[in-house]
Write a structure and sequence with these properties.
Blueprint lengths: L1 E6 L3 E8 L2 E8 L2 E5 L2 H9 L4 E4 L2 E5 L1 H9 L8 E2 L2 E2 L6 H13 L7 E7 L11 H13 L2 E7 H9 L7 E6 L4 E7 L2 E8 L3 H12 L3 H8 L14 H27 L6 E7 L8 H10 L6 E7 L6 H18 L16
Parallel strand pairs: 1-9, 9-10, 11-14, 14-15
Antiparallel strand pairs: 1-2, 2-3, 4-6, 5-6, 7-8, 11-12, 12-13
């Protein structure tokens, strides 16, 4: 058995094969704290609300955290910020450990292989992802897994471009970062991240409208559409403005990186977008329009959005994990044709 894990700023998701089906488990990567009382703890336990008590506080973790935050008009706290473990949150490691345990469960066999996503170092920020990667790797190892990191952008390629021989441009629009990978026959030509994503959009829209960030996030995750017909002044209008700005910024950096990497001209490149930030209706069309207008040395054969943007990275990590598992067992790979070679070790 093997498992894939998407360690995201907004959500943590696992993927595991069960017969012909892929089973996903998801929890929101956030928490809120409330004062402890015996009555409150009893009610939380009866309602199966994921929580943990520490001294005189109770931490409500995962999907229920956003609901409690909206009810009490408070902001959720995050174990991760900008794509990596938050250095400002003292409870980051125990909280992400609790959430991850709920998502992946116990290993089904000793030393079960688990590929987990890690972002590339951002080109527009000085932050390093190494501490984040090694900490998550240690937590998973303590849980009894054999953890292996895999680049997030490459995971998108494995998940979505098998029918194109793992050749194309994968763009993962996450909450904390945007990860980009250009692959040629499962070999990465370039991979990098940008320190902007859905959180950047939410925070800017919240500042512009004077709305709590969590309420902006709830609006975005509801029936928000990128149609640019929303009246200016409201939350949806602000979200459209900052989404537009985010896509311009991402494409500008793709152009710069392609120039620096001296990517071969004449390629016909399919593009796939994924990640929770790419979920609103109209996103795929807007990104395609902007990308086709960009000055790139290769042609774009089409832009598509993953069928399940939330699950794509976890799915790609699973593909790589199963391929590696089959390789080490001495059997031919059927999922990725050598995808394991591109895992970020």
């Amino acid at each position: 058995m093997a498992q894939g894990l998407d360690v995201g700023t907004m959500n943590i998701l696992s993927a595991r094969q069960d017969g012909d089906e892929t089973v996903f488990v998801q929890q929101r990567n956030s928490f809120v704290e409330i004062d402890h009382s015996d009555m409150a703890e009893q009610m939380l336990s009866r309602s199966d609300v994921l929580h943990i008590r520490k001294d005189n506080l109770v931490y409500i973790v995962g999907d229920d955290a956003l609901n409690f935050a909206n009810i009490f008009n408070e902001e959720t706290r995050r174990p991760m910020q900008a794509g990596i473990l938050s250095s400002d949150e003292k409870s980051a490691i125990p909280m992400i450990k609790l959430i991850t345990e709920q998502v992946v469960g116990e290993p089904r066999q000793p030393n079960e292989l688990l590929f987990f996503s890690v972002p590339a170092d951002p080109i527009d920020d000085q932050m390093s992802t190494l501490y984040h990667q090694k900490t998550v790797e240690s937590l998973l190892g303590d849980m009894g897994y054999n953890p292996e990191p895999i680049n997030e952008g490459m995971a998108v390629i494995y998940s979505e471009l098998a029918d194109r021989e793992f050749t194309g441009l994968g763009v993962s629009f996450g909450a904390g970062m945007t990860n980009i990978c250009l692959s040629y026959y499962a070999v990465p030509v370039m991979k990098f991240s940008i320190a902007r994503g859905g959180d950047w959009v939410d925070e800017r829209a919240a500042q512009a409208t004077g709305t709590p960030v969590d309420k902006v996030t709830s609006t975005k995750e509801g029936d928000f559409e990128l149609d640019f017909e929303t009246d200016v002044g409201g939350v949806e209008g602000a979200l459209s403005i900052y989404y537009d700005n985010l896509l311009d910024y991402v494409i500008e950096n793709i152009i710069n990186e392609v120039d620096q990497e001296d990517v071969e001209e004449g390629l016909d490149v399919p593009v796939v977008v994924t990640g929770g930030t790419s979920s609103p209706d109209g996103f795929e069309e807007l990104f395609s329009e902007r990308l086709n207008d960009a000055d790139l040395p290769f042609s774009i054969s089409g832009v598509s959005r993953a069928e399940n943007p939330m699950y794509s990275v976890a799915q790609g990590a699973l593909v790589a994990a199963r391929s590696e598992e089959e390789r080490t067992a001495g059997t031919p790979t059927s999922d990725a044709g050598g995808a394991e070679a591109e895992a970020e070790r």
